[in-house]
Amino acid sequence: MRTPFIAGNWKMNLTKGEAKALAAAVAEKAKDLPGVEIGIIPAFVHIACAACAIKGKSSVGIGAQDVYFEKNGAFTGEVSAAMLTDLGVKYVLVGHSERRHVIGETDALLNKKLHAVIAAGLTVILCIGEKIEQRKANQTFNVCKTQLIEGLKGLDKSKAGQLVIAYEPVWAIGTGLNATKEQAQEVHAFVRDELVKIFDAPTAAGIRIQYGGSVKASNAVELLSQPDVDGALVGGASLKIDEFAGILAAAKK
Ligand code: 13P
Description:
By secondary structure, the chain is an alpha/beta fold. 44% of the residues lie in helices and 15% in strands.
């Protein structure tokens, strides 16, 4: 059985004080939810203070929104996987749609980042998803397949325990327009089939696939009730403790 995994991607939001307070509030809510894996993913500059705010008090894991693939050196502005490990980070997002489509990261670059995260012993959350024009052109499966194959290139199945996939249709992110439970399940089942081809059936059966895109307390139950939806990657609603707590509660099966 796959443990449900809910992660809050705080994106480029919050002051240091707000990040500490929110981390502590999530840790408090997590006490009642032993069967749910919970992560918070602050901006780089808030990782240390968020980690400090919950240290020793909670099983909530800390994530990073990005990483650079080189180990160290003259890469101004970048952050390595080793630096993240040193801060106590457990998860790293790779290929979030805002990195793909706003910053312009390619599948080839993301594959290097994925390998850097895996080599550091951290868990990678590989984000995939189609844009609205791609969905309208019936390209959803093709886009997700390419992003999976290219992103996971060279990853041995023995490392699959360090892998989470997040299906985040770009048109659902920050729009208030979530995928329906049927749309989410259809793509998640497709993703799992592709994971069978890339790895094998038992490996694919163990990989969590999160849904992301306008997840709220009010739609979490129906989305998370789908057989291949193993959790959620939450943006806006993860910044409001009551909304996020509602999503966490929905994950408790
Ligand atoms: P929203 O929940 O704000 O739509 O964002 C989703 C997301 O991008 C999480 O990574």
